[in-house]
Q: What sequence folds into this?
């Protein structure tokens, strides 16, 4: 017998254990990282590294990290999650004026079916062949070969193109949001509660306006999800993809999960889903009806508590750039290995200053200084030191970086790369107002 959401609410065990952290499988997956084709690279790293982020009481990272979930908020939030449709492929189609109805696959070189890399993404025409992100490129070729054997068009992709398109989209999205968070190159969370004065219909209209604006100004289509929590907003942006908008009102959460596969919940991976299926739990409502206590005995208390709160709509609704960015870092790979350590130290100083300039722009400070050194042969070491309070003073971190380098670098060895990272980020209250979004 299936209970309604309200019945669940009444019958469920009130036992709720706030979680401190979630197991690895519940954390957002890192997306494919592109390396610059040139040797000399300088880039901001986006770490999805949770061990350096416990400093801010409200800034607990990761969708499902729940200590912030219990923070009382003044009123129910209206969150929007925007995710661009077949992003890399859509940008390539636009850039090269390709036919959108022909299968396009972005990924590593297929080498006529012998390639060893993976698919980055593909357009919807290619998805009709069963091709999807992270599939081996050889498998994609088998399903839809490229010229001259089949209709598939294979492109290696260019990160710069995607970053530029992403920036233009983000600029449009951040405009109406009181709080804005770029979550990845093609997705963002917006807290629009204030912008729409708590009106869910107005939120829907706002998403339509943003969708049209992105299409007109950038030429890309986007899908939107509107819901009271982050995870629900993310799930709802998937519902009507491509070019869809879907809304989950606070009292519709139970209905939304009725018959919905557990695998569709971000954070539930194939392993966990298989384990639950072995116990006969395939849909979210089946797991919910099972009860938190019983589910906890099978799948672990933390998982049971988290899933219960997902369905209850009590997971996080916080939108903040700190959730997605755990640190700010810059590093440089030298075109040939360096033996002049003084010169490398100069580069490290410049990188540190760049990082601090960036963090000031973002309105964040940090508690951890970390220097990365890669020697000839790729052996890599990181050396870090924390300070008692988060700061954004370049001089403080310059001194730390110099000391870390001088005390740790192995003399007489060639250096391939040097980098600096500011971690354990914090957001001083006085700066919160200026925090909007940051460029890549
Ligand atoms: N990406 C990647 N490797 C992956 C997954 C994604 O390089 N394993 C890149 C390519 C995607 C972009 O990130 O275009 C955004 O990822 P999404 O998961 O949002 O996928 P798409 O935007 O391509 O498709 P969808 O329409 O399903 O959002
Ligand atoms: Mg996308």
A:
């Amino acid at each position: 017998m299936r209970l309604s959401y309200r019945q669940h609410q009444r019958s469920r065990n009130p036992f709720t254990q706030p979680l401190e952290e979630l197991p690895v499988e519940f954390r957002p997956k890192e997306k494919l990282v592109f390396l610059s084709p040139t040797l000399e690279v300088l880039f901001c790293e986006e770490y999805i590294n949770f061990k350096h982020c416990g400093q801010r009481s409200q800034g607990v990272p990761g969708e499902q990290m729940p200590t912030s979930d219990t923070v009382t908020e003044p009123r129910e939030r209206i969150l929007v999650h925007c995710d661009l449709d077949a992003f890399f492929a859509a940008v390539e189609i636009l850039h090269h004026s390709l036919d959108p109805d022909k299968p396009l696959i972005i990924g590593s070189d297929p080498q006529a079916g012998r390639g060893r890399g993976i698919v980055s993404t593909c357009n919807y025409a290619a998805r009709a062949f069963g091709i999807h992100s992270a599939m081996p490129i050889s498998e994609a070729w088998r399903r839809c070969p490229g010229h001259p054997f089949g209709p598939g068009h294979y492109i290696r992709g260019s990160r710069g193109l995607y970053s530029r398109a992403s920036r233009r989209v983000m600029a449009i999205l951040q405009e109406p949001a009181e709080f804005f968070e770029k979550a990845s190159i093609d997705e963002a969370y917006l807290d629009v509660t204030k912008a729409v004065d708590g009106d869910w219909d107005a939120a829907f209209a706002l998403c339509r306006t943003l969708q049209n604006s992105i299409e007109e100004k950038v030429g890309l289509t986007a899908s939107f999800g509107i819901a009271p929590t982050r995870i629900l907003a993310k799930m709802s942006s998937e519902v009507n993809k491509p070019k869809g908008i879907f809304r989950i009102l606070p009292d519709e959460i139970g209905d939304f999960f009725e018959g919905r596969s557990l695998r569709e919940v971000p954070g539930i991976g194939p392993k966990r889903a298989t384990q639950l299926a072995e116990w006969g739990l395939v849909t979210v409502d089946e797991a919910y009806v099972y009860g938190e206590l019983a589910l906890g005995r099978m799948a672990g208390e933390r998982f049971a508590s988290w899933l219960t709160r997902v369905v209850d709509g009590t997971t996080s609704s916080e939108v903040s750039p700190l959730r997605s960015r755990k640190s700010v870092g810059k590093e440089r790979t030298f075109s040939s290995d360096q033996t002049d350590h003084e010169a490398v130290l100069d580069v490290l100083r410049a990188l540190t200053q760049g990082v601090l300039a960036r963090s000031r722009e973002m309105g964040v400070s940090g508690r951890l200084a970390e220097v990365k050194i890669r020697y000839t042969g790729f052996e890599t070491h990181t050396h870090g030191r924390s300070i008692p309070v988060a700061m954004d003073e370049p001089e403080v971190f310059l001194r730390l970086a110099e000391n870390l380098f001088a005390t740790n670098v192995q003399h007489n060895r060639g250096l391939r790369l040097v980098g600096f990272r500011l971690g354990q980020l914090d957001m001083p209250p006085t700066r919160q107002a200026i925090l909007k979004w940051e460029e890549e």
